[in-house]
Amino acid sequence: PEFDLIIAKGRIATAADSFSADIGIRNGRIVALGQLSGARETIDASGRLVLPGGIDAHVHLAQDGAPGIVMGDDFETGTRSAAFGGNTTVMPFCVQKRGQSLREALKDYHARAEGACYTDTSFHLIVTDPTEQVLGQDLPALVAEGYSSLKVFMTYADMVLSDYEILGVMKVARKTGALVMVHAEGFDAIRFNTEQLEAGGGFGPKFHAISRPEPVEREATHRAATLAELSDVPVMIVHVSGGEVIDEIARARGRGVKVLAETCPQYLVLEEGDLDREGMEGSKYVCSPPPRDRTAQEACWQGLIDGTFDVFSSDHCPYRFDETGKLTPDGKRSFRWIPNGIPGIETRLPILFSEGVKKGRIDINRFVALTATNPARIYGLRNKGTIAIGADADIAIWDPDKTVVIGQDKLHHGTDYTPYEGLEVTGWPETTILRGQVVVRDGELVGRPAGGHVLRPVSGMEQGVKAGR
Ligand code: DUC
Ligand code: ZN
Ligand code: ZN
Ligand code: ZN
User: Fold this and answer.
1) List of residues 6+ apart from 137 with CB closer than 8 A
2) What are the pocket residues of ligand 1 if the criterion is a CB atom closer than 6 Å to any ligand atom?
3) Which of 21, 181, 197, 235 has its CA 20 to 30 A from that of 57?
4) Residue 110: its pLDDT value, please?
5) Which pTM was predicted?
């Protein structure tokens, strides 16, 4: 037969168009679109929506935490959950520990991922120790090899970089074309607020949000954009939580700074009040930046509608709840010890589809752009993120009318709760295909954990140009 696989009679959507066609796949690539026949296998997609496989450009898998804190997902369970959620590529972080070389960190994370993934995987670096060796030798070499995106933190004692250090990193980015992603929250303000709150007896999860209100994020976003302006580089502001931050991004763009921006499901459907739930329940919602209020949710929706946001990612960061109530086991009681991050790799696409597309806030083409096409372009994932002849056959087949009440019992991650428990969504991915291989078929796992490739993005210079707005 001419094709290995035909996906027949589906309604296809890309970032640009919607149309009905059969998709012909050979050797893992899309080779034909139209009225097709002659395949070893045909999947009937009539009445279904056929989308590019999701690209989750911001996830944390198998990261080392503080002593006693274990992440709820390794690469196997994390990418399995991603595949069930309609994704075919995930972008986790390779974290440099202080004192460690970037190459050692990469070797370590590659070893965790190789042969263990149900989806394709491509690493961002996290630079926590920008020594002369790192800035002068290692980072330029790695960018040239294809590690063309890296994250820096403006908070956390063990991660924070000074403005001076960020400028050093951005100088390398300017030279090599790497894209700098920034966690924009101000360290000193958070530290000060945390001490004040604890001194006043404020220890519970809700004080996490009170210690880092939106102005803390707005100020850091302004500073990150300014450092990018001084350095003449694009910058990606990740996990944006509300309107004040969005306004700061718009101002920077207005003066010509190339600011890219990402938001996440937690800023659309969770609120600060969730951190104040009974007992330790609130710890299930502790992430940074924290979810805000209704006004901030609306501002994030507006940013998705008007194109302020380039990318919609999960920021899946799966700390376990049961053993510790998301607290360190050695009895430290304050919110400051609650690991920051919540799971969401499987629920990202259904939440945006249901709340966004089904409720008429965004159209299906914008949905595809935010969740697959833009991440592929911005991070230089060649042949990914769209349905076109020559592209990788990374495809998700959705039932657009299936209603699901999200619950831990239905998810496939390795962690033990979902912050979206009880949320009803309409539209669910049923079948996920990676480079022409079925990974999930009608809600059943059929792929193998060795099926995913650990990719590297294309070389930095090329992607730096593309990242320009
Ligand atoms: N930043 C993230 O991107 N994820 C989880 C925690 C954090 O601070
Ligand atoms: Zn972050
Ligand atoms: Zn994150
Ligand atoms: Zn491979």
Assistant:
1) none
2) 60, 183, 238-239, 287-288, 315, 317, 340-341
3) 21
4) 94
5) 0.96
